[in-house]
Every structure is written in structure tokens, then in C-alpha cells.
């Protein structure tokens, strides 16, 4: 990811007087143009980088410049390491582990034990139990396209099963709710859209067609206003029998359970109404009953009848 690459470039330049842009591009598997954009970003952050022309030229830090190790506390370094380890579980980049080692190396020996303790207190893992092996090629391809600012094309099947061909400008990878999405500007719709990676097929990069990055915030695709957040979010009332209380606690938490006089338990939660919700409720089987809203209750009853019919016919 870009942040990890920027930090790696800074650390590399601190340890070497000069390095060529081509070497950096090969090292981080990006284009030379991307490296120069990274250099501009580092300069904008206040770290002076000089470009030397000629046969023996290259990129280096301004003479006499040193990054003050005290600009980051051990707690701040530990927070960075924790974040990188958590990202690695879901994103799967080997460079993250190398960066963790580099950051750990700047911690003074007297503080090593305390630092290790701080970095092993929390681990956030959004990766599915079956891993991300099938998604990893897509993530790598999209990462390359985003860094190089080149168009991509793919076949997309939306939540309603409609299939279409898309040509887009890829801008950002988003991990939300254990699912990966691509935020991209769709040339056909002429607006930013969110595409679920699992619904993308035949993904390919068009390296001959580049684009200039747009500002997605101008179209409301900022945090809290994304199309990942649907407008149809009804409150669903679930009823669990007492013998299934453990399932309710596992899915919703103990604090969410409301006792009923007959010994059952109610849970009230707002969920986006879509195919995921129907599958989630059906997956709980006979342990749960939907009380409200009434139209959702009818949908679940109808689908349960169809499932029962399939099994009766297969005898």
C-alpha cells in the first residue's frame, strides 16, 4: 500500500546516500512515474529529497538531513506495528512484515521487551476463515492499477444478478464487513461506484490507457456517505427460544438480549434488507423467528417453504 511504500522509501534513503528511481520502481513493483509521485508526497510532508541528474545521479535526502527518531514515541511505533500486522492478515503483503522489522529495529534495546509486549496486545483480523487466496490475485492486480493510474475492465454481476461489462478508473481498495470492495469511477455511468471483488470476473489491466485521479469526495463517497451504506435499513425483531440463547449471544452479544415472560429472548437490530439478510436469517434455522417487520417475516416463510419442498421432492 502507498503508506507502507512511502515509509520504506524514507528508511531506505536514510541508510543510503543515493538510489535510482528505476531501482525503487523494481523493488516496490510499481512504475517509475509512481516513484516520482511518491517523492513529491514525501517532499510535501517536510522531508527534503533531492534528485541528482547525470549518469551517477539518483534520488537522495538533502545533505545533512536526519530523521529524528524521537519524533515518534514507542507507543506510536507500537501502534503502527499493530496496524501493519492487522492489515497483513487481510491484505497479505510481504512488504508489511519487512516494514514491521524495520520499525522494530529503531527501538532502543532497553525498551525491546516492553515494545514487544505493546505490539502483541491487540490483533485485528478481518480475513475470512477460508483465507483470501482466491482474492489475492485480484488485490495485487488492482493495487498495481491504482498505483499506475491505468484503466481496468471486468465483467460484473450485481446483487440482483445483472451482468455487465465495466471499464473503470480504480481509485481505492476498501475492506468493510469482511468483504473487499473497489471504489472506482465508472466511465459508462460517469460517476463513482463501489464494486465487490467477489462479483468481479475477467479482471484485466489496460496499461495503455492512463487517467488523472479524481476527488471522490465531490460525489459523496466519503466515510458515512458511501453506497456501502444502503438507505433501506429496517429494524428487525428476532425471537430466540431459551435453548438457543447461546446462538443469540454469539451473534448479537449478551447485552442485546431482552427477556420475555415465556422464557424466550428478543433481539432488535437494524440491518440492510438484501439477500445477505435473508440468508443470515435462514442460516439460523429453527432457532429463530422473525417477528417484525411483517413483510420480512413473509419473505422468510416463503423461502423456508421452498427449501422444505426441495427436500421433500428429493426423497
Automatic annotation (TrEMBL):
Instruction: Give the source's domain of life in one word.
Output: Bacteria
List, alphabetically, the Gene3D superfamilies matched: Winged helix-like DNA-binding domain superfamily/Winged helix DNA-binding domain
Where is each HTH deoR-type domain found? 2-57
The signal peptide, as residue positions, is none
Q: Which UniProt keywords apply?
A: Transcription, Transcription regulation
Instruction: Give this protein's Gene Ontology molecular function annotations.
Output: DNA-binding transcription factor activity
PANTHER family the UniProt entry points to: PTHR34580, WYL DOMAIN-CONTAINING PROTEIN
Instruction: From the Swiss-Prot or TrEMBL record, give the protein name.
Output: Transcriptional regulator
